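Please describe the entry underneath.
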Amino acid sequence: MMQKKILLIRNDHIGDIVLSIGILKELKKKFPELKIDFIASKRGVSLIEKNKDIRKKIILSYKLKSIKDFFNYFKKIFEIRKEKYDVGIDLRGAFFNILLLRFGNIKYKMGFCKENLFCRQGLDFSMKRDLKKHETENILNLINKGLNLNLKSDFPNIVTTKEDKKKAKEIIKKNKLKKFICVIPDTENSKKQWGLKNFDLLIKKINKKFPSYKVVLFGVDQAELGWLAKKNKKILNLGKVNLRVLYELFKRSSLIISLDVGPMHIAWASKKKLIAIIIEYNSRSIKNINPLGKNSYYFSGKKEEISVEQVFKKICEVLK
């Protein structure tokens, strides 16, 4: 018999939440009465905020950096203990998350983890993440094996509201956007940067070849976005917008061009045309996080291996 109440934990980055939420729809389809609660990070919780498959949304980071963070963490443990969850699943594979499951009065504890003594003691069922497989497949395997199910993979379901759609339409109307290309050129991780000069050259090529398309910038670093906007007077800099509104804007766009950041995953989840630029560093596997779907294309390699000409050629193919 399936358990009645599940706690899912994916409290890290925006893209990681997108990679994790496809399973929610499948769980609810299989078990309509199942109560699912979800622990997310503050920056990513808006992606699941309106999802009715989730009963309760809890904000908690997997990193504890201050006394306030520790106080809040222990407060959450007591709140979780009161819920008496049947199953707790850590999709991040983080020390404090496993600890949360262990002391949260949860009957059956699952999660990703490295093979170490604490992990084996802290969880009833654990798997090592296979970096040669896509993260969505890893999550599916963990849940199917840990709960003895046979669920199928599904595209992430980002639930939006009438207000989100209205806001997206207002932005489009206000800025007279008919055909537009969304560009996400900034990232907090310097190792993932392709370079503003490359984006500057790329935008200039787009404006020259496709003058009927408006280039729209999104991102969080206003200094970087402002530099590009100053260099290219015809483009529109919208900066940071609500993630659900961003999703609705993507759905109405002609093309999205993005670095390996959260919006890249929101873009492929929208099923619109996407060109991703994924900079390889260290020994991380691109197969684990590459965008999915028939409309997704991506370039991967070291920064100097991905040229403006390569990316622009693909843009021409996509927009022809």
